[in-house]
Amino acid sequence: MAVDEIPVIDIAPLVARDPAGAAATGAAMREASERIGFFYIAGHGVPAALTQNLFSTAARFFALPEEEKATVKVNKRHRGWIGHGGAKMYGTAKADLKESFVWGLELPEDDPDVAAGTPLMGPNQWPAALPELRPALYGWYEAVVAAGHAVLRGLALSLGRDMDFFAKPFERPLARGSAIWYPPQPPDLGREQFGVAPHTDYGGLTLLAQDMTGGLQVKGTDREWVMAHPIPDTFVVNIGDLMHRWTNGRFHSNPHRVVNTSGKARQSAAVFFDPGFHAVVDPRDLLEDPAQAKYPPIACGEWVVGKFDKAFQYRAPATPS
Ligand SMILES: O=C(O)CCC(=O)C(=O)O
Ligand SMILES: [Fe+2]
Questions:
Q1: What is the ipTM, given to two decimal places?
Q2: Do 184 and 263 form a contact (C-beta atoms < 8 A)?
Q3: Rounded-to-integer distance, Cα 131 and Cα 137, Å
Q4: For ligand 1, atom 1, which residue shows the shortest CA distance?
Q5: For 254-267, what is each residue's pLDDT tens digit?
């Protein structure tokens, strides 16, 4: 198992929009994206103190009594608390052993998209019992979205496009923040119990901060599971299914899973950085010869809603009692 199978890439030149360094940084991202679909980023500009504050504040949220957390139970817009049992990857036997709190781009009810009832868009839900949750999570989210834009600049350059190729489709992104809590896993739960069962991410890019516990595993090129060890002050970035399609299959949306065998609780926090609801993902945009496209164009919003409907218990149609 190669230790450097998942490379660490310093994206400072992309954060600074430095044309000389940006192309080489983008080329390193492209190499990792085509081979394994995962890389770490350093030099991302997200202050370590913001991530620490997110973890400590989220831990206080998860420690609240169930009835407090239930006041912000996940709603149809996919904002709020998802308790244990609420997320189950397709085709797996058991629900993931985790709980999470999910939020996204904050939009008022009178925003034209929200007023039109566009799925997944709208205001967030914040718990009255923990007013500091909102600034801790939202400040971190905005910094991570900015880092996500820097990553997109590198990927755009690596694909022979202008640095800002992805800026427009990722305007008003369906980016979701998720603070995740994995309880200690009892050893007698058997081999089928995962923190997160093997899956690919649905969208554009995922940027993930993890605490020092470890447990994230990535399919290696030799088909072994490779540990994505925690590296301080980095984010793990991975390619999602939409970016796989957009690049006509060149970038790899790689299966990964979480197994928390530490005997302790584990925390992670992700931004699932997906294009805007109305963005069209069309591989012809990134091909020299459009006739080579393997996938028809798809609308981002429809795709993401379709995936959510399968993965989350709360979206299942009510069964008549
Ligand atoms: O917590 C982690 O390390 C990864 C979580 C993950 O893969 C996901 O939520 O999609
Ligand atoms: Fe994932």
A1: 0.99
A2: yes
A3: 11
A4: 268
A5: 999 998 888 899 99
